[in-house]
Amino acid sequence: MAASETHHTLPLPGFDAPVRLLAVVAPYYKDIADALVAGARATAEAAGAELDIVEVPGALEIPTAVRLAHGMADYHGYVALGCVIRGETTHYDTVCNDSSRALTLLGLDGACIGNGILTVENRDQAVVRADPQGQNKGGGAAAAALHLVALSRKWGRATKGIGFLGAKTGDKG
Questions:
Q1: Quick check: helix, strand or coil at residue 27?
Q2: What's the DSSP call for residue 162?
Q3: Are 70 and 111 in contact (CB under 8 A)?
Q4: Which family does it belong to (predicted)?
Q5: Binding site for 5-amino-6-(D-ribitylamino)uracil: which residues?
């Protein structure tokens, strides 16, 4: 049973220079999204990072917004936040798989992304996972982005040369 398991959590990294994160939020389930944002905001503040928020219609639009920001704005990392609850059709599988795959490809292309898109069977599972005083998956996603930003700075820059998506990539670290 997952509730009785313990998990190791890395301490938040420290930074010598400012860190700007962008949280891209799909507020389809507004109360759940708000809880995810609260957790992400608290974690970013604890690390001394600035967190901007933008909203998109749904989970499938999150990767596109991250890609646009990564190519056009000045952010060091990204936090993907939203919730997909299983319904009666296979649309759930499409949304979960495609949003996750797109975020993974963006990460492989050099974007420092924490994936906080919940994929759950029911609302109760989502509420527990989103609660900043519970599993705090929004905070966990922000922490993941911060750890990747720290790695990109440790190794000199986030990306080099031509990325997997075919675009020239630059120094985002």
A1: coil
A2: B
A3: yes
A4: Belongs to the DMRL synthase family.
A5: 28, 59-61, 83-85, 115
Q: What is the SS3 assignment for 62?
A: helix
Sign of the dihedral through C-alpha 72, 74, 79, 82: negative
Express each pLDDT in 4-57 by its tens digit: 678 899 999 999 999 999 999 999 999 999 999 999 999 999 999 999 999 999
Both structure tokens of 38: 């609260």
Cα dihedral 78, 148, 127, 46 sign? negative
Active site residue 8: no
Cβ count near 161 (within 10 Å): 8
From 7, 76, 91, 147, active-site residue? 91
Give the residue numbers of the binding site.
28, 59-61, 83-85, 88-89, 115, 129
**CA dist., res. 115 & res. 56, Å (int):** 15
Helices and strands, number each (H, E), in the chain = 5, 4
Residue set of the binding site for (2S)-2-hydroxy-3-oxobutyl phosphate: 88-89, 129
d(CA 90, CA 19): 39
